Amino acid sequence: MPASADLLKELRIDRSAPPPARDGNKRWVFIAIGAGLLAVILGAWVVLGRDKATEVETAQVTSVGGANGSGAATVLDATGYIVARRMATVSAKITGKVREIKIEEGMHVEAGQVMATLDPIDADAERTLMSSQVGAAQSQIGMVQAQLKEAEANVVRLNGLVTQQLVAKSQFDQAVAERDALRAQLTTAQRNARVAGDRLRIADLSVDNTIVRAPFAGIVIAKAAQPGEIVSPLSAGGGYTRTGIGTIVDMDSLEVEVEVGEAFIGRVKPGMPTQTMLNAYPDWKIPGKVIAIIPAADRGKATVKVRVGMDQKDARIVPDMGARVSFLETAPPKDAAPRKPTVLAPSSAIVDRGGNDVVFVVAEDKVQQRAVKLGRTLGDDREIVDGLSGGDTIVLAPPESLVDGGRIKQKQSQAQ
User: Fold this and answer.
1) Is there a contact between 367 and 402 (Cβ–Cβ < 8 Å)?
2) Is 223 contained in some domain?
3) pLDDT tens, position by position, 140-194
4) Pairing with 228, which of 24, 127, 170, 334 sits 20 to 30 Å away (CA)?
5) SS3 for the chain, per residue?
6) What is the largest CA-CA distance in the chain?
7) Domain annotation covers residue 81
8) How far is it, in rounded angstroms, from Cα 82 to Cα 86?
């Protein structure tokens, strides 16, 4: 029994004893190890991320405004196309078969020069018939004149005999009636001759219509028919009938037609000086001026058409060629401070970083984040008032992962 009582006492919980101390040193060891591993991982990610080059597309910005050849500043840029005010597709006035074509593309023609001839068989036959009718009418006049001369002499003779009462007065009256009838026949014959002459002149025009001539001087840009084909101004034969011989353009009438946004049309005035730069020859600046502002707006595009003339005429300027037009202010006074030029950059290169408009400028294989001040919107471009210079290379559509000082490489073209 005493031994059992001692065992039960050992099993009793002593609540007055202090709780055992926890092993806090091990917890801090684990925390320190985890923090070290996290730091190593972050450091490696940063190093590897900076060393990895981002594949991007780049573009070079262009300088606008500032000093021009005229000393004026650019107030607006717009794009358009070269158009001809005088351009015609020349056709025959009649339906006929082409006998000869005397033009080729690129050929210069003068006003009135023969471009083509049609088969004149029908027209020649009609003219021959009309000429014969003129001859018949002239012969009819001669016959009636001879009869009238005899009738007038008969009237004079009978008049004397009637006075002497040697013939009946009825016979004299009959002679007078015959004379008057022949006079009427002569008048009719003369009118018929004039009608026949008019028909002959019409037949001459029909023959002349078989010859197709240039309406004005210009350059042939299209040859639309070949010998043996049927041409008609009305296209009576459907798809098998040509409606034109060729198209000519008066190169002296070339001008630029641009579309200006409604928000900027107030900056454009008739007679305003301009500079035109062709897409094919970007370094060639052609001076000119605004010819007219078309008083109608495009509801869908919210634009207004403007006609711009060019002071220089050159064979390199051809219709439908793309062009960019800079509308210039009048030349400032000689003592005025020069206006600072601006640049145009693609809108896709401008992104928001921390509430600021920035671009990434390429410097060798790295980029520099640069804040910019934006100006006007010109098509797909934006005017950069401050922050860039002409000739800078910038990144197009920079990704979110691209940061200041990041390495880049040029994206390879997909076409091989």
Assistant:
1) yes
2) yes
3) 888 888 888 888 888 888 887 877 777 777 887 888 888 888 889 888 988 998 9
4) 127
5) CHHHHHHHHHHCCCCCCCCCCCCHHHHHHHHHHHHHHHHHHHHHHHHHHHHCCEEEEEEECEEECCCCCCCCCEEEEEEEEEEECCEEEECCCCCEEEEEECCCCCCEECCCCEEEEECCHHHHHHHHHHHHHHHHHHHHHHHHHHHHHHHHHHHHHHHHHHHCCCCCHHHHHHHHHHHHHHHHHHHHHHHHHHHHHHHHHHHHHHHHCCEEECCCCEEEEEECCCCCCEECCCCCCHHHCECCCEEEECHHHEEEEEEEEHHHHHHCCCCCEEEEEECCCCCCEEEEEEEEEEEEEECCCCEEEEEEEECCCCCCCCCCCEEEEEEECCCCCCCCCCCCCEEEEEHHHCEEECCEEEEEEEECCEEEEEECEEEEEECCEEEEEECCCCCCEEEECCCCCCCCCCEEEECCCCCC
6) 210
7) yes
8) 12
Residue at 34 is within a domain: no
Please give the mean pLDDT across all residues of the chain. Answer: 81
With CA atoms as reference, report the closest residue to 115 among 218, 18, 35, 188.
218
Q: Which of 373, 363, 355, 371 is nearest to 394 (CA)?
A: 363
> What's the confidence (pLDDT) of residue 248?
94
Model-level pTM?
Answer: 0.54
Reported confidence tier of residue 92, pLDDT bands at 50, 70, 90: confident
Domain assignment of residue 17, yes or no: no
* Six-digit token string for 203: 């037949």
The CA radius of gyration of the chain, in Å to the nearest whole number, is: 48
End position of a domain, from candidates 328, 351, 380: 328
What is the domain extent for residue 264?
74-85+252-328
- Alpha-carbon distance values, 291 to 266, 273, 342, 363 (Å): 15, 10, 27, 44
- For residue 53, what pLDDT band results from cuts at 50, 70 and 90? confident
Q: At 408, list the tokens.
A: 């880049």
For residues 130 and 98, membership in a common domain is answered with no
Indicate the number of domains in the chain.
Answer: 4
Q: Are residues 238 and 97 in the same domain?
A: yes
Together in a domain, 319 and 344: no
**Residue of 93, 31, 110, 92 lying closest to 101 (CA atoms):** 92
Strand order in the sheet with 114-118: 211-213, 114-118, 96-101, 230-231
